[in-house]
From TrEMBL:
Organism: Rhizobium lusitanum
Pfam families reported for this sequence: ResIII
GO cellular component, one term: cytosol
Bias kind Acidic residues: ranges: 115-129
InterPro entries assigned to the protein according to its UniProt record, in alphabetical order: Helicase/UvrB_N, Helicase_ATP-bd, Helicase_Restrict-Modif_Enz, P-loop_NTPase
Name this polypeptide is given: RNA helicase
Residues covered by region (Disordered): 115-145
Length: 933
């Protein structure tokens, strides 16, 4: 470690952390959250150097593993120094600095010798066989191999663990790392991540925090842009409609489902089988079974109502609804019904087994069954078709044309896709097959065939590298500067186009070719580089990238943020860099015609959307939904005037201008116009970064169109009415008595009226005062939201989920002009805010299966109503916490009864709660986002 010395200049946030390093390491660890491109690798190496002990660095992929070694040599050793022998990539032969992947650690603990894959973990739910319990012999073997690995690390005195992006861990990898940490007996853990898993449940977060330690500092994207450590940037969306062949296939898939449902509805045998189901013939006697699957019970009633069959009154009574409250039959309710008939309750339909069996076979043939589950809406085949729609190729063509014209020779564009699809390469110049699939080669081909001049197009994947033939000279010079012999570089002219050559380095690894092509890209030998997200999506360092097209199908929180990070890094060679990031979405033409919540007029030939609703809330298909999920991870400029910085897809809504009933074509043109004006990006960021406070920062906020309503109104109105009548009677009778006003036939009633009113006034006064206090305190929507928030905060603090002193915490709520409520918690840590907002979300949205619910029946004489609210799941896990929350709810919000839903009585209440939610015509819309303020 004494040989190492940082050769550069620290950024502001890095220097701040290093200045306070001694105090930060007092708990044997450091946990930093910072955006991609913020320099976490260099920070981690400096922390390692200052600790001064042999270190094990773990990375999520081989590309990032190699990057750690490259950064160490380039930035901490004198210029021209050779790579030290004490850097090792072999866990079985560790050095003073050992750099491996998480997968390599797991393999070594299992006794397997496998080559590390250069892949990214897109699905954090993958468990590498966690559900398969290992045998005792396997456990003993693992313990033996793990013991050898640990002994080797102890021998070289490894006392520091650096964990890069530990959120990547699959469960089996997690076990290996936890075992290692325990075996090394309290090593210093340095955890670095761009995307902590805030969206996991508290138990999983606890596990993550136990490994990585509490977060010591969190640096947001706006902070880094403000400090000049990330460049100004903007996200854009380019929409497309499936081509004619794809649209026909979609229509055929949906028509098959429609025909199937129509045929099933016309089947007298099937209808009679539903009618004869024991839950409908004797619902009161089958209440227990109904409570175990209330959705299936509801689906049978909904189906029969659609058949104009009179519903049993006893069945409606169990649900607590009237006939008109039962919703209309939809494909989603048919899914519930058929899942019950085909799988969950098959034994109850033995009399109709032949018909049910044939219908099940028919549904399988048309793709309506997926892994023993009925899927009538957005089947996987539809999702895949939209995600990989060839229409996106034309979108890419339009974007490249726009950006090429706008940027000229300064363009450095990267296009990331999921698959290479090498088979799409033509065999000869005249053999140009139609391009009908997304992938690296199809994207390359459609751009090559477009005839762009001076585009300098290239491919970089793990198995295929293509460059312009005119760039061979530049590549040769780059290779020579890296010490790679020219004789080891093999070029092969593409059979279908002499203007391009494939490149291979004999005896070299992926890291060599990636490094060379990256340099070629930076120097302009390639201006548009097409590659796979697995190779270039994370860890790839090319600061020159100023335009990114995400042509992949990944919508995950973690990986999409990492890919976007390729474009937002600053470029020392271009201080004025500003980046455009393009996202592609294929709109489902059927959903464009008809939204689930609002009918849309028929789509025009150009894809016009003739509906005034906010496009963010309209269902436009699974690909659009994936895009919206992706945007939850992005903090960036809104298209508002003036601009603000926030996360979520809502920030792009003004540019979509759906309230003006524009077509998709017009929306794309709006995006293009904004993207062409890169020069204004820096100014817009400067405006937005001012915020609205003395020390602006990112604050997480809950947005809702619903607040618990009517919590006090009935009781308040009742007591106030009685008190008013009583006081009015007192005044009336007093006037009559003092001024001897004759009331004719009522005169004799004055003394009696006076006495009654006195009694009513005295009896109702305490309740009137309490109700009036509640009304004054909680009368407005934002005040009610705040009181609910206070109950949540105090409960989570009691549970020690929130540890910050209550006196430092403030619940803020505000109402905008459109009636949307915004709620946030000030003074808490990022994790505490996340738990608070999730608990609030569960209260405000109609949670399907809470362990506890709050029930408040109320009556204003002959008018009766019941309000239900779910107790958040993290609070409802323990009875004492739920009871504590109920007490606070009663104090701050209004009296409600706490009901446990896991016994027969409680499940009946839960059934009524769920029925009320699906019978309601009002759709609760809840969203979480972050905003700079």
């Amino acid at each position: 470690m004494k040989e190492l010395a940082f050769q550069g200049k620290w950024r502001t946030y890095q220097q701040k952390i290093l200045d306070n390093l001694t105090s930060l390491l007092e708990d044997d660890g450091l946990h930093i959250v910072a955006a991609p491109g913020s320099g976490k690798t260099l920070l981690g190496l400096e922390v390692m150097r200052r600790i001064g002990e042999p270190t094990l660095i773990l990375a999520p992929s081989r590309t990032i593993r190699d990057q750690w070694a490259q950064r160490l040599c380039a930035m901490f050793l004198p210029a021209g120094a050779s790579r030290p022998k004490w850097i090792s990539h072999d866990i079985r032969s560790p050095g003073d600095v050992t750099i491996i992947t998480y997968q390599a650690l797991h393999a070594a603990f299992s006794g397997r010798v496998v080559e590390e894959e250069d892949t990214n973990v897109e699905d954090e739910s993958l468990d590498d066989g966690e559900n398969t319990r290992p045998s005792e012999a396997t456990k003993r073997e693992t313990e033996k191999h793990a013991g050898k690995i640990v002994a080797g690390l102890r021998e070289v005195k490894v006392r520091t663990l650096v964990l890069d992006e530990a959120h990547h861990l699959r469960n089996e990898w997690w076990k290996a790392l936890t075992t290692l940490k325990e075996a090394l007996a309290r090593p210093t853990v340095v955890a670095l991540t761009a995307t902590p898993p805030y969206d996991v449940d508290p138990q999983e977060w606890s596990r993550y925090q136990e490994l990585c330690g509490p977060i010591d500092d969190e640096i947001s994207v706006p902070e880094l842009v403000l400090q000049g450590d990330l460049c100004p940037h903007q996200d854009y969306v380019y929409f497309s409609l499936p081509n004619a062949a794809e649209a026909e296939r979609l229509a055929r898939l949906r028509q098959d489902i429609s025909d199937f449902v129509s045929g099933l509805s016309e089947s007298a045998v099937f209808r009679d089988a539903i009618l004869r189901h024991p839950w409908l013939t004797d619902p009161m006697g089958k209440t227990e079974a109904i409570l175990d699957d209330p959705s299936f019970f509801s689906s049978m009633l909904i189906f029969l109502k659609a058949q104009n069959i009179q519903l049993p009154q006893s069945a409606l009574d169990i649900l607590g609804v009237k006939v008109h409250d039962v919703p209309t039959l939809s494909l989603r309710w048919m899914e519930v019904l058929l899942n019950g008939v085909f799988y969950g309750h098959r034994n109850d339909f033995e009399a109709a087994e032949q018909v049910i069996g044939s219908q099940q076979s028919r549904l399988r043939q048309i793709g309506g069954l997926e892994r023993s589950k009925v899927r009538l809406v957005d089947q996987k085949s539809i999702q895949k078709l939209l995600a990989s729609s060839a229409s996106k190729l034309n979108s890419i063509l339009d974007i490249v044309r726009l950006e090429s014209a706008s940027m000229g020779d300064d363009l450095r564009m990267v296009i990331l896709s999921d698959y290479i699809r090498r088979e799409a390469l033509p065999a000869e110049p005249g053999n140009l097959r139609p391009i009908d699939r997304m992938g690296v080669v199809p994207i390359f081909e459609i751009l090559r065939r477009s005839g762009f001049k001076h585009l300098s197009l290239g491919i970089l994947t793990g198995s295929l590298v293509v460059i312009p033939a005119s760039s061979k000279g530049i590549l040769g010079k780059i290779a020579a500067s890296l010490g790679i012999d020219a004789s080891n570089i093999r070029y092969q002219e593409l059979a279908f186009d002499a203007g391009f050559v494939s490149v291979e380095i004999i005896g070299g690894g992926n890291s060599d070719i990636v490094h060379i092509i990256t340099q070629l890209f930076a120097q302009g030998g390639i201006k548009v580089l097409v590659g796979t997200q697995a190779l270039l999506g994370e860890g790839w360092d090319a600061p020159c990238v100023n335009t990114l097209i995400l042509a992949n199908t990944v919508g995950s929180y973690v990986l999409s943020n990492q890919m976007r990070g390729r474009a937002i890094r600053i470029d020392a060679m271009n201080p004025e860099k500003a980046s455009n990031i393009w996202h592609l979405a294929a709109i489902d033409p059927e959903k464009l015609k008809w939204s689930n919540s609002h009918p849309l007029s028929p789509m025009a030939a150009d894809g016009s959307v003739s509906h005034s609703s906010d496009v963010v809330t309209v269902d436009l298909g699974s690909d659009f939904d994936a895009l919206k999920r992706r945007f939850h991870a992005f903090e960036g400029l809104s298209f508002d005037t003036p601009p603000v910085i926030k996360s979520g897809f809502q920030r792009l809504a003004p540019a979509m201008a759906m309230q003006k009933m524009l077509s998709l074509h017009d929306v794309n043109r709006t995006m293009e116009q904004r993207a062409s004006d890169r020069k204004s990006l820096k100014t817009l960021w400067q405006i937005a970064l001012r915020g609205n406070s003395a020390a602006p920062r990112m604050r997480e906020i809950l947005q809702s169109n619903y607040v618990p309503k009517g919590l006090f109104h009935w009781k308040t109105a009742k007591y106030l009415l009685v008190e008013s009548l009583a006081l009015g009677g007192l005044i009336l009778s007093s006037i009559s008595h003092l001024f001897r006003v004759r009331f004719h036939s009522f005169e004799e009633m004055v003394p009696f009226l006076f006495a009654i009113c006195c009694v009513l006034a005295v009896v109702c006064l305490p309740q009137t005062l309490k109700a009036s206090f509640l009304l004054l305190r909680n009368g407005s929507l934002e005040s009610r939201m705040r009181q609910v928030g206070i109950a949540v905060v105090e409960t989570l603090h009691h549970m020690e989920v929130i540890r910050t002193d209550l006196r430092q915490l403030v619940v803020h709520a505000a109402l905008d002009d459109s009636g949307v409520i915004f709620c946030q918690l000030e003074g808490a840590t990022a994790v505490e805010r996340s738990y608070f907002l999730e608990a609030m979300r569960e209260i405000l949205v109609s949670t399907q299966n809470p362990r506890y619910i709050l029930v408040r029946p109320s009556m204003l004489w002959w008018l009766r109503r019941t309000d239900f609210h779910a107790v958040p799941s993290m609070i409802g896990q323990k009875k004492e916490n739920a009871e504590y929350f109920a007490q606070l709810w009663n104090r701050y919000v209004g009296y409600s009864e706490l009901v446990y839903t896991r016994n027969p009585e409680g499940r009946l209440k839960l059934l009524q709660y769920r029925t009320k939610s699906f019978a309601s015509a009002f759709t609760r819309e809840i969203d979480r986002f972050s905003r700079w303020e």
